[in-house]
Write a structure and sequence with these properties.
This protein has 105 residues and is of the alpha+beta class. Helix content is 48%, strand content 33%. It has two helices and six strands, in the order E-E-E-E-H-E-E-H. It is elongated and about 55 Å long.
């Protein structure tokens, strides 16, 4: 059985998604955040909102997610947000391609 996956990387980190296990992992520095697919979208929304709120009053983006506490420079946070958004687009594209292939067969 073939397991499809999506892998997106940049200088700031990585995002991988396994279609078989329905899990995504966001890597930033030495930290890897494992997420179920639904939680990936929730994390993206949370990250966007937190970044927007904190940009006005802090030099760093600070937040707690699950058991982890992050303190990220805004330049890294912007790059990480862009990476996560790109990964979400790639996951959607991957899903649409799989649906198309299923319908074509």
């Amino acid at each position: 059985m073939k397991h499809d996956s999506v892998f997106v990387e940049s200088e700031i980190g990585t995002v991988s998604f396994c279609d078989a296990c329905q899990r995504a992992s966001i890597g930033y520095g030495p930290v890897m955040i494992p997420l179920k697919e639904k939680n990936f979208s929730d994390f993206l929304h949370f990250f966007e909102q937190t970044l927007s709120e904190q940009r006005k009053k802090n030099d760093f983006m600070s937040f707690r997610y699950s058991e982890l506490y992050f303190r990220i420079p805004f330049s890294d946070a912007d790059d990480l947000l862009s990476l996560i958004q790109q990964a979400q687009t790639e996951i959607w594209r991957h899903r649409l391609e799989n649906q198309y292939q299923t319908l074509a067969n």
